[in-house]
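## retry 2 of 3
previous attempt timed out at serialization; input unchanged, resubmitting
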Amino acid sequence: MNIDKSTNILIVDDYKTMLRIIRNLLKQIEFNNVEEASDGAEALAKLRNNNFGLVISDWNMQPMTGLELLREVRADGKLKSIPFIMITAESKTENVVAAKQAGVSNYIVKPFNAETLRDKIEKVMGHA
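## retry succeeded, writing output
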């Protein structure tokens, strides 16, 4: 599958180390146009001011959770079709259901590697 590696990706996590890990994994699979946001409000501001082809967000953030961010994105006419991958530390059924109902494109359970990330990105971008 031919995915556009120049796609702008926004990664959102309130934990700096995690942002660095995700950025490095993306670099391994040749995605270099990566921007970071450390919370949901910053993510929304960036999404509204730039053109992103994918959002990868952590679930567990303060003050706005990844789920709340996802709901905001899906409620925004300009943003609602952006593929959105949620990263979660636990694959509790109710979390998965809530994310699906909110319109998540896919999700990744920690810990994960570049291969898993590529797989999930291909799945969601392949449907674009």
